[in-house]
Amino acid sequence: MSEVWMTMEEIEALWPNRKPKPLEEPYKQLAMNLRDKALAQVEQNADQDWLAQAWIVLRSYCREHPGLVFTSPGFVLNSHYRYDLPHPREARVWGAIFRQAAKEGLIEKTGQYMQSPDPRQHLRPVACWRVIGG
Question: Mean pLDDT lowest for which of 11-15, 47-51, 100-104?
């Protein structure tokens, strides 16, 4: 399977009539607050031992792969098969982990998208991340 790298502009060009309109500021702020609250709740309800293991795996991955561009579904698959990390009770906890890793300067979004390497995601576009710290 070949990887297809696209920018957000290229993805939007594929669906010109489906481009969402930007949210007005009060709605955008509300959406961000609701997202942050949901991610915090997922992280709070996660198995704390699993969460600690996931952080160890992510930090190890970042140390081993400086500058690497990857996707979150690719990392999740890799963490399970290569690092033997069990699946979390709630898969959405990965979103909280990646947001925190970005805040801590371990990873950053590249602005590029590629097809998900996870076959269950039916090749949907997913954001690319770059390792910037370890």
Answer: 11-15
